[in-house]
Amino acid sequence: MLEECLLNRVPVNITDRAGNSPLHCAAHSGRLDCLERLLAVPKINVNARNRMGDTPLHLAAWRGHAHCVRAIRKAGGADLKVNRLAELAVKTFTKYVEQVRNDDGKTASEVCQETETKAEFEQWELAAGIRERPRSINHEYEDSSDEDEEEK
After folding, report:
1. What is the pLDDT of residues 138-148, one digit of tens each?
2. Residue 68: helix, strand or coil by DSSP?
3. Residue 122: which CATH number?
4. CB 143 within 8 A of CB 152
5. pLDDT for 41-93, tens place per residue?
């Protein structure tokens, strides 16, 4: 069905009443074959938002489709960060970066609950400079019972 639509030049960024594009639907349902085919279309909008503010990445994450998150990452072009100019920033010609959030204020990694998908986001966010590498804490604990005996 998808191939037929593409052959008949049906617009790939068309949306339904909820604002979901075919890419949203493929990501939500975990249909990797459809997702990869859509991602190969030159004018596909990977960062399209539905009426809830969700991108296809949000939907894949929410549903725990790590394979779809990986495909979107591999295809490139998906924004984890969005550049916005605040009113004050416009006046001072500086811009700040914040993560792409849906209407609930959640990032794609925050809506994700499945472990493998969360791990995929951690790697992506590290590479994008959104997340810092956790510092290894190397505490050498002394036996406090020995200290207590020495003080007595």
Report:
1. 555 555 455 55
2. helix
3. 1.25.40.20
4. no
5. 999 999 999 999 999 999 999 999 999 999 999 998 888 765 443 333 334 43
Domain assignment of residue 137, yes or no: no
Amino acid at 19: G
Beta bridge partners of 96: 84
How many other C-beta atoms can be found within 10 angstroms of the C-beta atom of residue 35?
25
Give per-residue pLDDT as tens, 26-38: 999 999 999 999 9
In contact, 28 and 54? CB cutoff 8 Å? no
Q: How many C-beta neighbours within 10 Å does residue 121 have?
A: 22
Compute the distance between CA of residue 91 and CA of residue 107 in angstroms, rounded to an integer: 28
Amino acid identity at 112: C
- 96 within domain boundaries: yes
Burial 3-14 (b: 16+ CB within 10 A, else e): eeeeeeeeebee
Q: Are 62 and 111 in contact (CB under 8 A)?
A: yes
Number of domains in the chain: 1
